[in-house]
């Protein structure tokens, strides 16, 4: 192909592909004309909710992550199917927070009760704004959020377990899943800093605090080191016959504050999940952990940039999407 021809070909290809480049659709102040007060409606509903249920903060942040990694940021995580074939009935999503879902429904109701805004704001955007607001309301950075996502029409159980990271993942497994979503190792490390708030159930790390007999010829379960005093504390919260509802805070130092203590915990070998502690144990990611542990501003800046990239994953446009009337079901 001649150079000029190639240029025309590339330009045409770009025009054909451009509508599929989701990022081109998102922008700040997307609802400036259709629902100008949307951000203040969202933030006041969020702060109201956090007064009665602080747990909704962590729950909402996690829900946004799980939405974006499974079929893109399209609120598919909110859909409920009568036959149970939906994301929140599967894998890691079964422990998504009921308080977070309640918060999203409350925001949707508050927006739609404003006659100018009725049925104009997508549930996917509501989740993105709410996730932004819980971060700043718990002490983290505040940042402008890109909007303009449509709500997806599909939610299935099967895809969940292939789409979300396991707490037993090592650095290579974490990186390859995040790379597949367009996120770098630094993005992955700063997003893991979301574990500065919220809880985990005992089953997610029980293998780290007891030695289980291995079946013959199976490889020992991989386990990064843990502070011994801390391990003994965790055994009190999670005895070997732990109850299914028992939880511990992911950041034991400042569990209710969005800060960089998560990274300091990792330096002290007090990361709860194996996937947390490995970020310090593996030499390839340790320098970034040390940097975020010593400089909260650097962590916050990196977190904002990674959240923005996270929010662009798999955004729906055109007939693939809609503005849902009810966040838990397709129109
Ligand atoms: C890097 C890979 C990640 C893994 C393996 C992972 C795994 C987990 C696990 C196992 C839990 C506990 C769930 C339970 O017991 O109910 C959890 C909780 C949580 N995760 Fe992650 N996560 C990861 C990344 C992220 C990201 C990127 C975010 C958000 C940006 C996030 C936000 C949260 C929050 C806020 C909680 C607490 C939820 C609550 O208290 O309701 N996680 N995560
Ligand atoms: C676990 O076992 C101990 C001792 O047998 C018992 O006292 C405790 O109530 C049990 N805990 C749970 C959560 O079943
Ligand atoms: C912390 O990080 C910020 C943002 O990257 C940078 O501007 C600042 O110089 C850093 N502070 C120190 C003490 O290194």
From TrEMBL:
Name the positions where substrate binds.
165
Biological process GO terms, please? hydrogen peroxide catabolic process; response to oxidative stress
GO molecular function (one)? metal ion binding
Which residues of this UniProt protein bind Ca(2+) 1? Answer: 67, 70, 72, 74, 76, 87
Q: Where is the signal peptide?
A: 1-24
What EC number(s) does this enzyme carry?
1.11.1.7
Q: Name one GO cellular component term.
A: extracellular region
| Textual note on the cofactor | Binds 2 calcium ions per subunit. Binds 1 heme b (iron(II)-protoporphyrin IX) group per subunit.
Q: Which domain of life is it from?
A: Eukaryota
Predominant location category: secreted
Identify the keywords attached in UniProt to this record, alphabetized.
Answer: Calcium, Disulfide bond, Glycoprotein, Heme, Hydrogen peroxide, Iron, Metal-binding, Oxidoreductase, Peroxidase, Pyrrolidone carboxylic acid, Secreted, Signal
The prosthetic group or cofactor this protein requires is: Ca(2+); heme b
Q: Where in the cell is it found?
A: Secreted
**Residues that coordinate or bind Ca(2+) 2:** 196, 251, 254, 259
Catalytic activity annotated for this protein? 2 a phenolic donor + H2O2 = 2 a phenolic radical donor + 2 H2O
Q: Which residues form the Plant heme peroxidase family profile domain?
A: 25-331
Give the disulfide map: 35-117, 68-73, 123-327, 202-238
Record bears the keyword Secreted: yes
Q: What does this protein do?
A: Removal of H(2)O(2), oxidation of toxic reductants, biosynthesis and degradation of lignin, suberization, auxin catabolism, response to environmental stresses such as wounding, pathogen attack and oxidative stress.
Indicate the family of this protein: Belongs to the peroxidase family. Classical plant (class III) peroxidase subfamily. Belongs to the peroxidase family. Ascorbate peroxidase subfamily.
- Please name the PANTHER family in this protein's record: PEROXIDASE, PTHR31517
**Protein name per Swiss-Prot or TrEMBL:** Peroxidase
